[in-house]
Amino acid sequence: MLRNKIISAILGATLLFGSIDAAYAANKADQIEYARSTVDVLNVRTEPNLSASIIRKIGKSTRYEVLDKQSDWVKIRLSKESIGWVYQEYIQYESSKPAQSKGTDADTSLKQPTIVHITDVTNLRSGPGTDYKIIGKAQPGHTYSIISTEGEWYKVSLPNKSTAYVASWVVNTDFSKRNGNVTTSSKKDENFAPMLFIYHTHNRESWKNIARNTKGSSVDDPVENITLVGKRLDQLLEEKGIPALSSQDDFAERLKQEKLSYSQSYSVSRKAIEKARKDYPSLSYFFDIHRDADVPREKTTITIEGKTYARILFVIGTGHPRYKENKAFAESLNKLLNEKYPGLSRGILTKSADKGNGEYNQSISPGSILLEIGGTNNTLQESLHTSEAIADVFAQYLNAGKGS
């Protein structure tokens, strides 16, 4: 009898501790470790040694999954198909946060969008990133239910009961309608040190194929507008390890509220620049992104290796003493564009005070420029393609300037 009790106790303990070990292992597996750079520019190399080739430079704004460690080196995942090594001395480790249990926040369902509205021809991908395979095209007017959110991507349910991913920066959602005046917090943390400020003085500029306001010469929209291009550029640069800050300020609404004329747009946007500089002293580059007017499509569009882009026109104001520095910066980017994307640039246009604003807030920094991306006859998708080229060229410009 006693012998049977002892055996039962041993078996019970074995099952108990076995369950604890299994739970511990499962919990440990859920705790993915991440690495974040502690410096503004950190080299990512092909192998764990200083003589290996540099793949990319990353900054403080993004964390990367840790795959392996060797001596003083850490192997990280840059994207689905790209990995590299960074020097351990210049990174800090972070762990993934445990998933929140259902029911811990009564307002969770309210705080998340549930529907995406397609505003332009949009890629449907097999995973949450531009390096995943395109499995279809969503057409303007289509609506899909959101299953989950992964970073900047929405996983959506398709009519055939399959799923796909769409980028958040190219779609509209029901978030504002469901939340009223609720605002989301910034994705930037307290250690964020951006070098580029992206803003849009004429923030509601849109395209003829989707704009809701097309009265007279206006081609504007309160949601589907040029700010989506700046938001996309911000994300692309973040993926390259270049910290940027994209403004979503509605300057058009501010002009209306303050009863100011359209000609005072640059005075209003300058206040946003000055606030950004005060909040982030690390800023040294400023991109004011617009789209051009009703220019013939054949002049504002180009196809390079099968992809259609909205062409770029650099605008430099000569109405301040140091404009030549802005012009030199634009010339550097223009040169790189001509080398990597022949025909994408429409060149550099200088404008004095008698031809326009004349200054365009460019006296704020020698790294300040205005970019006209396409015109009213282009599409959002073509403009987003151009943001990819800008990110590519700007990264090349910075890497060349900083060296290794």
Describe this structure in words.
This protein has 404 residues and is of the alpha+beta class. The chain has three domains: 33-95, SH3 Domains (SH3 type barrels, Roll); 108-179, SH3 Domains (SH3 type barrels), CATH 2.30.30.40; 196-402, Zn-dependent exopeptidases (Aminopeptidase). It is built from nine helices and 22 strands. The protein has helices spanning 2-30, 108-111, 175-179, 227-239, 251-257, 265-279, 297-300, 323-340, 380-402, and strands at residues 33-37, 42-45, 54-58, 63-70, 73-79, 82-87, 91-95, 115-118, 122-125, 134-138, 143-150, 153-157, 163-167, 171-173, 196-199, 244-246, 285-290, 301-304, 307-310, 312-317, 345-351, 367-373. Strands 16-15-17-22-20-21 form a six-stranded mixed beta sheet, sandwiched between helices. Helix 4 (227-239) packs across helix 9. The protein is globular. It starts with a helix and ends with a helix.
Summarize the structure.
The chain has helices at 2-30, 108-111, 175-179, 227-239, 251-257, 265-279, 297-300, 323-340, 380-402, and strands at 33-37, 42-45, 54-58, 63-70, 73-79, 82-87, 91-95, 115-118, 122-125, 134-138, 143-150, 153-157, 163-167, 171-173, 196-199, 244-246, 285-290, 301-304, 307-310, 312-317, 345-351, 367-373. By secondary structure, the protein is α+β, with helices and mostly antiparallel strands. Strand 20, helix 8 (323-340) and strand 21 (345-351) form a beta-alpha-beta unit.
